[in-house]
Write a structure and sequence with these properties.
The chain contains no helices and 12 strands. By secondary structure, it is mainly beta.
Length: 136
């Protein structure tokens, strides 16, 4: 309960990892923390987390469900690159969606972006070919 950050590359490449429930003591999911965990299907991020780092869940090709809590203010570059997320609701606490954050999420069908977002980075939703609904 004293750990507050999942460090860079901590679980990177753990292909058999299926489900993750991050404890409420965490405040940051660092860069590449779960990169390449292709067996990961769902992640529960607690409301204590404020930052999702660079490529934190990149190439988690099985990841179809993620809830971003209202404590998160920034979604890092490539954070969910090439995941199988179907829908995503960006909480009103988020002010910045960095470049390539959801690039390659071809299964994504809908996105709701709140008015709090002041910056959407380069190629943030590139390759989201299934996207049929976008709400601002």
């Amino acid at each position: 309960s004293s750990v507050t950050e999942i460090g860079n590359y901590t679980f990177s490449g753990c292909r058999r990892l299926e489900n993750v429930e991050i404890p409420s003591s965490m405040t940051k999911i660092s860069d590449y923390a779960f990169r390449g965990c292709s067996g990961l299907t769902s992640v529960k991020i607690p409301s204590s987390v404020t930052e999702i780092g660079y490529e934190a869940f990149e190439e988690c090709s099985g990841l179809s469900s993620v809830e971003i809590p209202s404590s998160v203010t920034e979604i890092g570059s490539g954070a969910f690159y090439d995941c199988s997320i179907f829908t995503v609701e960006i909480p009103s606490s988020v002010t910045k969606i960095e470049s390539e954050a959801f690039e390659g999420c071809s299964w994504m069908t809908s996105v709701e972006i709140p008015s709090s977002v002041t910056e959407i980075g380069y190629k943030a939703f590139k390759g989201c070919i299934g996207l049929t609904s976008l709400l601002f």
